[in-house]
Amino acid sequence: MIVEDAAGLGAPLDWQHTYADLARMLALELILVVPNHPGFISAAALSLDYAARRGIPIRGCIVNGIDRTASETVQRDGDFIVRATGARCLGTVRFKEPLALDIVERLL
Fold first, then answer.
1. pLDDT by residue (tens digit) across 46-97?
2. Residue 35, beta-bridge partner list
3. Residue 14 per-residue DSSP state
C-alpha cells in the first residue's frame, strides 16, 4: 500500500494526530520523495530524523528532479543524500520522466 501524505509526516490529520501517527498505526515504511532544490539535504535529514524518532521504519529516499536544471544533477544528489543521512537511495527521477521500472521493482 502506498499512502501519500500532505506536506510531511508532521502535517495534522486532526487536532490529535499527524501523518506520522497514521504511518505508525498502519505499520507503514517511509519512502521519502526528496525534491531536488536548494536545501534538499537538510530537509531530507530533518524528515528522516523525525520519522526515526517517531518509530517509523525508513525504506529509503527517491530524489526528484523538479525542473530541467535539477535533473542534470539528480543522480549526484542521490549520492549526496546517502552520504549525508545514511538512508538508502531507492532511485532518482528526472523532470517530467515517469518512475523507472527498476525503482518500482525495489519497492515491491
1. 999 999 999 999 999 999 989 888 888 888 999 999 999 999 999 999 999 9
2. 64
3. S
Q: Are 7 and 1 in contact (CB under 8 A)?
A: no
pLDDT at 46: 94
Overall pTM surpassing 0.85 (yes/no): yes
Q: What does the chain come to in residues? A: 108
Residue spans of alpha helices (H) in 34-67: 40-53
Cα 24 to Cα 107: distance, rounded to the nearest angstrom: 19
| 21: pLDDT strictly greater than 70 | yes
Helix (H, G, I), strand (E, B) or coil at 18: strand
Helix (H, G, I), strand (E, B) or coil at 105: helix
Helix, strand, or coil (residue 99): coil
Cβ atoms of 91 and 79 closer than 8 Å: no
